[in-house]
Amino acid sequence: MSLPVLYSLRNCPYAMRARLAIYRSKQPIELRDIVLKNKPPEMLVASPKGTVPILVLASSKVIDESLEVMLWALNESDPDNLLRKSASPVPDTKQLLPDMLQLINQFDVEFKTCLEQYKCAKRYHESNLNECRQACEVYIRNLEQRLTEHAFIMDEHESLADIALLPFIRQFARIERQWYLQSDYVHVKQWLNRYLQSPLFTKVMAKYPLWNENSEVDVFCGKEQ
Fold this sequence. Notes:
By secondary structure, the protein is α+β, with helices and mostly antiparallel strands. The chain has two domains: about 5-85 and about 200-220, Glutaredoxin (3-Layer(aba) Sandwich), CATH 3.40.30.10; about 95-200, Glutathione S-transferase Yfyf (Class Pi), Chain A, domain 2 (Up-down Bundle), CATH 1.20.1050. The chain has nine helices and five strands; from the N terminus they run E-H-E-H-E-E-H-H-H-H-H-H-H-E. A five-stranded mixed sheet has the order 4-3-1-2-5. The two termini are about 20 Å apart.
């Protein structure tokens, strides 16, 4: 049986969080690493909008939104209960998934807009750099407060929210590196460092040869070797 195919770009935050969820789900997929300046025709046939990630299932169904890829993977298999569908390890899970999706949407829509403005202000040496950073900090303070109360964003255990937001918080931390390292966001820094120094992140960020139609199949999976 053919594996689902994931078109991915190594450093794209949306593709990154799709790979994070797939890794946590332990579902094997065929990973096709691409570059956007040379999009494979097969990828554009699957999704003409041409943005990653694009997941093509064995049924030929196409999922081309990163959060939907994450939800597909974890609905297929969720050994760490990231969707909080069971009472273990967290007893009260009734409203957690809607709360997670609301938080993720807030960061995808609002924080991401502020983040892009902050990146542009830094790149082009604009005079409103501080204002752009402060707009992002509204959302970073939210995370800092949450992480003051428990080890992960929603509670004491990793959830969908953590791996969905991780790539964008990583981007925020890299824009003004020295400012970030000296900032008061102690718990955000601890949370981010825990991921960046983890085997999970090393695996998810591993570099694969760029895919073409003659490439061998690269299987990506979170199962222990």
